[in-house]
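Operator note (shift B, R.M.): manual run for Peroxisomal membrane protein PEX14 requested after the automated queue skipped it. Running by hand, logging everything below so the morning shift can see what happened. Input copied straight from the record, untouched. If output looks odd, do not overwrite the archive copy; leave it for review.
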Amino acid sequence: MSEPSERMGPSAPRADMVANAVSFLEDPNVQSSSMSQRISFLESKGLTSQEIDRALSQVGRAPPPLPPSAPYPMMPAYPPARPQRDWRDWFIMAVVSGTVGYGVVSLARRYLYPHLQPPNKTVLEEEREALEAKYDEVALHLEELDQTTEAMSQGLAAQQSAIQASVRGVNDLVAESRSREEQRDKDLEHMKSEMESMREEFASMLERSRASSITALTDLQGELKSLRSLLVSRGGLSTPSASAPAESSAPPPAKAAPQIPAWQLESHDE
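Run finished. Output pasted below as returned.
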């Protein structure tokens, strides 16, 4: 079927190919695809632009498609021809592949290989020294913290001792002041009691002295009266001539009895 078409020349449209294209275009299964996709498919099958235009014109004047019971035969699908490659293509591919591989290997050596290889002895020693330095630094900080805490504890203990001493001193002063007040109250009570006793004793002494003075005065008045009466009785029995010298030789009249001072009487009344 391809031999007659080759003898007809490239300019003459091939009737079988046009018929196959018309049947393809009228197929309900390809109606959902766009026109450009269908034209591209026909071009990939080897149809020329004249054949595609004739098939499109026939599809435009053709009656509605027949029912699916009598479909038109589809054109066979030909695989696309593989492009031919020469040595230049292979050379370019080798150069690009080598460059990409070298870049990947360089990046892997620089960034990935150091993380994948095991650490050597020098790195381990450096890490150990760094850890020991960190440990020493932490231990120094902890020691400084312990010293600071100990100093604070000692300061607080000293302050607590000073406060306790101050409290004890205040308590001692309060107790001493209370004892002094109690002793003063006792002394005042004792002085008051002594003054009361002295007052009572002085009053009793005044009363006794007053009573003794009154008794002595009473006795003295009695004696004076008896002496007067005696003198009078003696003067009445003597002669008148002798009365004058008797009167002249008589003792002077007795003085008035002494009186008790007013302040002694007031103190006695109290």
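Quick read of the result: The chain has a mean pLDDT of 76. The longest helix spans residues 121-237.
Leaving this for review. - R.M.
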